[in-house]
Amino acid sequence: MMTAHLSNDMNNADFTAQSDAFTFITQNDLKQTETLNLKGLTLSSVNHMGKFGVFLGEEKIAFKEILFNVNDKNNINLNGIEFYHKTNELDHALNTELNYSLDDLNIDGNDFGSGKLFVSLEGIDGQTIKHFMEMIKNKTIKSLKAENNDEFLNTDQKDIIKNIWQAALKGNAVLKIEPLSWKNSQGEGTFNLQAQMKIPESTTTDPQNLSLASGIKKIDARLNIPVVMLKELMTQISILQGNSQEESQKLADQQVQSLAKLGKLLKFTTLENDIIGSQFYFENHQIDLNGQKFSSQSFSELFNMAGLLNSEQQTAPEIPSTITPANP
User: Fold this and answer.
1) In this predicted structure, what is the pLDDT of residue 306?
2) Predicted local distance difference test score (pLDDT) of residue 325
3) Which pLDDT score, from 0 to 100, does residue 74 have?
4) Which domain of life is it from (predicted)?
5) What pTM value is reported for the model?
6) Rounded CA gap, 145 and 67, in Å?
7) Which among 31, 125, 180, 225 could bridge 191 via Cys, Cβ 3.0 to 4.6 Å?
8) CA angle, corner 25, sides to 20 and 26, nearest 5?
9) β partners of residue 292
10) Is the preceding peptide bond at 328 cis, omega within 30 degrees of 0?
11) pLDDT for 239-281, tens place per residue?
12) What is the pLDDT of residue 189?
């Protein structure tokens, strides 16, 4: 079932759709039959044109279940999938947000858990976006009249990211990820981020050549991954590769220990109370990483792994991909 409505001035558009099931069957290059089943589809969209030339409103798409298999094997089941997007405007700014959630991921009978993601960008300068949309409109009209419109189309594609970035800077926009998470039977790992934009201090800087760092006022990022949760995830992955439950658990233990050691060696993560964590804070050209203070310049040296390892005369721990016997 589907319904749609578009106003005469094309400034209001509503759309809804529902379906019990879709099935797609194809054959891959190996002559194997791939089957994709989509069950319980619901889709809705309600939008109207805003004062900055951008459609405002919300869109939602959801599936009760998505099932994929090859020759009736290698089953991948995703249950309870939902995407939600919303855009609104205030006096001088635009706000947009994206929500994603997955209730359950099951691969060949192995329960991998559930995930969710929330991303928002608040405070996008409306007038900058309006100017950009008017420019796109004028270029589109001009390109339709031209014999060769490739130049105009390519220019538009290049300008999109640049103009959105400039609008974010001018509005001192705030990017939020609250949170990105994955949860299984043993716990939940999360990543949270808040980043506030700013107009660069140097007035002589060409706005078309602004670097990412010059437009960041503040960053607050936090990572928390329970060790048992990560071991469970790696155990499930190993089982899919054909290892036994016991072998997979041993390999997962080795891999997580190696990752934790590597993170500690590079000073990017900590290990406390069986939680692999990291806290990063940046403001006024100063960085705090897990309680350690750095200038922007000294922090950049952390990314030179070879220099760090040589100065400390250490070698990075190897992350195993095979089982190491306890008593060789």
Assistant:
1) 36
2) 47
3) 75
4) Bacteria
5) 0.82
6) 47
7) 180
8) 150
9) 289
10) no
11) 999 999 999 999 999 999 999 999 988 889 999 999 999 999 9
12) 97
- 327 burial via Cβ count (<10 Å: 0-12, 13-18, 19+): exposed
Distance CA 52, CA 57 (A): 13
Q: How far apart are CA 316 and CA 262, in angstroms?
A: 6
Alpha-carbon span 175 to 92, nearest angstrom = 17
Spell out the residues 6+ positions from residue 109 whose beta carbon is closer than 8 angstroms to its own: 75
| Residue 143, both tokens | 């390109």
Cα angle 23, 237, 69; round to 5: 15
**Residue 83 pairs with which residues in a beta bridge?**
61, 100
**Cα atoms in the 13 Å half-sphere on the side-chain side of 42:** 9
